[in-house]
Amino acid sequence: MSTAATMRLPISRWSIEDRPTERLQRMGADALTDAELLAILIGSGTTQYSAVDIAKHVLGKFSNNLNTLGKARFDEFEDIEGVGTQTACKIMAAVELGKRRQTATAELRPDMGTAVRIYNYMQPRMMDLDVEQFHILLMNQNYKLIKSVKISQGGITETSVDIRVIMREAVLSNATILAACHNHPSGSLTPSKADDGLTQSIKHACELMRILFLDHVIVTDGAYYSYHEQGKI
Fold first, then answer.
1. Do residues 146 and 173 lie in contact, with contact meaning Cβ atoms separated by under 8 Å?
2. Is residue 132 pLDDT above 50, yes or no?
3. What CA–CA distance (Å, rounded) separates 231 from 134?
4. Closest Cα to residue 12, out of 46, 35, 38?
5. What is the rounded distance in angstroms from the CA atom of residue 139 to the CA atom of residue 109?
6. Most CB within 10 Å of its CB: which of 141, 155, 161, 218?
7. Beta strands across the sheet bearing 177-183
C-alpha cells in the first residue's frame, strides 16, 4: 500500500505495522515522527482526516515546532478540526509533563556491585518475612540497579523458581548483570542442595544469554551468605 493511499484511510484500516501504536511497541517511541506521537494522543480521527492528518494540522498551526506548540494556549486549539476539549487537554498535559521532566532530579540508582550492598538493600525488605521469597536484582554494565523483581514466594523452607521467568525479566529490562537473593526465615546461612542447584541453573542460563551472573545472596537477620564470596560462582 502506498503512503498516499494509507493516509486517506482511517488508522484502523492501515496495515498493523504502519499504525503508530504498533510501531511504538515494536520499535520504541523514538522511532516515531512528531505527528505519529501526537496521533497517539489524539486517538481517533474524523470521517475526513485520520489521527495522523489531524496531528499534522496541529503541528502546522504551530510552525511545525514543538517548542512553539509547548507555548500554546487552550483556545488556540479550538479551530482545529478533530481537536476537541479532551484532545486539547491531552496535548497540553503531555507538553507539561515534558517540561516537568526537564526540571526533575535524575533517579539515583544504587550500586549493587558487592554482596554487602545487595544485603544492605534486600535485608530491610526481607527481615520480617516468615516464608521464603526469591528476588533478582537487575543491573546495567556499571552495577547500577535497574530494578529488583520478586520472582516467587514459597513456604518456610523453600520456594519454587522458574529460570525462564528470571531470564525474561532480565532481557526485557536490558540488564547486563544479574544477582539473585533469597531469605532463610530459619536464620540458617547454610545453602541447601536446592539452593546450589538453582544457583548453577541460573549461572548456566546467564552464560547462554551473555549476562553476568554476579552473585546469589542468602539473607538472614544480621548476616548473609554470598556464593560469589565463597568462590561457588
1. yes
2. yes
3. 21
4. 46
5. 9
6. 218
7. 145-153, 133-139, 177-183, 212-220, 223-226
3-state secondary structure the chain: CCHHHHHCCCHHHCCHHHCHHHHHHHHCHHHCCHHHHHHHHHCCCCCCCCHHHHHHHHHHHCCCCHHHHHCCCHHHHCCCCCCCHHHHHHHHHHHHHHHHHHHCCCCCCCECCCHHHHHHHHHHHHCCCCCCEEEEEEECCCCEEEEEEEEEECCCCCCCCCHHHHHHHHHHCCCCEEEEEEECCCCCCCCCHHHHHHHHHHHHHHHHHCCEEEEEEEEECCEEEECCCCCCC
Q: Which among 183, 192, 118 has a CA at the least distance from the CA of 155?
A: 183
Cα 61 to Cα 78: distance, rounded to the nearest angstrom: 12
Residue 181 has φ and ψ, to the nearest 5°, of -155, 135
Least Cα distance to 157 among 131, 182, 118 occurs for: 131
The grid cell for 211 is: 549476562
Q: Which of 23-32, 119-128, 193-202, 219-228 has the lowest mean pLDDT?
A: 23-32
Distances (CA, A) of 152 to 121, 129, 155, 157: 18, 13, 10, 13
